[in-house]
Amino acid sequence: MVSVAFYNISMDKLSKDQIKIEKTYKIINTRMPDFSMRFFNSMEGILKPSSLYIYSIDIAAFFDYLGSTSYNIKKMNIRDLSKISPEVIEDYVEFVRSSTTNNRKKQPSDNTIHRIICILSAFFDYYFKNGFILFNPVCKVSRPSIPRNPSEGTNMQDNLKLLEYVSKGNLPTKKMSVFQSKLRARDTAILALIMGAGLKTSECLNINIQDLDLEHNCLYVRSRHAPNLIYISPFISEKLSEYLSIRLDMIAVYGHDDALFLSLRMQRLGARELQLLIKKYSSALFGDQQAIKATDLRNAFRRNIFTTSQNLFVTSAITGSATAYLLQKPYSSYLDYYETEKGKDFNPEDLLNKGGTE
């Protein structure tokens, strides 16, 4: 078996990335043809370990389906990929839509189906571009239309209510309150960062202790491209300082020593745990029907930036989010408002007092 070259991470420390890589190795070696390793080798430096793991799961599931029909997966070679027609892909998509677990229909969402088709397309496209097959059959398979419009998010009043509830309120049950008392400083600091600095979930969770410079009210954020220095308000700095005084007394699991935000298991807090954390507090405060997500808080921050700047490009740059083109549609109502109101404040005297026209 050809070895995988991607993500040469030192094995002296246990990390989530290493775990994902090991699981990916196992899936490739046991559930896919040997030639599949070519594709995963090509992903070196392109996909994160967590993304690569998802790719391996979806591609392996496709080969499992082929194995249940007329294919011998372990004996397949690259030339056999040419035998897979668009009809086979469509049959697989229909199989996924109608599959059951414990006699219960899974009913995958359009987002799930869209993701599966995109991953299979990337897989076949690699072999097509490198001349191993004559065309990519997935290109002829229709994909569910996924709306790109993000929600507007919560309003500032609800954000402040939620932050106050996390920092001062009590969860409904005694057991939940016990855990809340242990995690109050951490949870308050996390929500303050997302609400007040507009950090993404991944950016928030990837912060290390050494990234903080609370003396100057700033911190380094690891984005997709490079670490960025951002400044935070004294309020956010204060909440981080309160949590940091507790965090420095914690003994983290080996390999998670640098992580700022730890779970009760003394490991770096995960994305799913953060989602459940916010849902727990917002459901207790507003009810299950109005439960707030991390994306709602971030979208509210983005909307406030846009309302202040009235500029999509500025909003995109500051929040590090979608391109200005993708932001245009969800904020078209605001653009229409500013278009109709843009001339009402024109006053030559005010402009002259400011030193002339701009």
Descriptive account of the structure:
This protein has 15 helices and five strands. By secondary structure, the chain is mainly alpha-helical. It has two domains: 16-140, no CATH class; 156-294, Intergrase catalytic core (hpI Integrase, Chain A, Orthogonal Bundle). The strands form two sheets. The chain has a three-stranded antiparallel sheet with strand order 3-4-5, with no helix packed on it. α1 runs parallel beside α3 (49-67), α3 (49-67) crosses α5 (110-129) and α7 (174-197) crosses α9. It is elongated, with a radius of gyration of 25 Å. The N and C termini lie far apart (67 Å). 23% of the residues are buried.
Q: In the CATH hierarchy, what is the architecture of the largest domain at level 2? A: Orthogonal Bundle
Q: How many domains, as an integer?
A: 2
Strand order, largest beta sheet: 3-4-5
Q: What is the string of SSEs from the N terminus onward?
A: HHHHEEHHHHEEEHHHHHHH
Q: What's the CATH superfamily of the largest domain, by name?
A: Intergrase catalytic core
Give the overall pLDDT as a whole number: 79
- Report the strand count: 5
The CATH top-level class label of the largest domain: Mainly Alpha
State the separation between the terminal residues, measured CA to CA: 67 Å
> What is the beta-strand fraction?
under 5%
Radius of gyration: 25 Å
Structural class: mainly alpha
What proportion of the residues is helical, as a percent range? Answer: 40-55%
| Spans of at least 5 consecutive residues with low confidence | 1-14, 322-326, 336-344
Largest sheet: 3 strands, antiparallel
- Name the overall outline: elongated
The CATH topology annotation of the largest domain reads as: hpI Integrase, Chain A
* Count of alpha/pi helices: 15
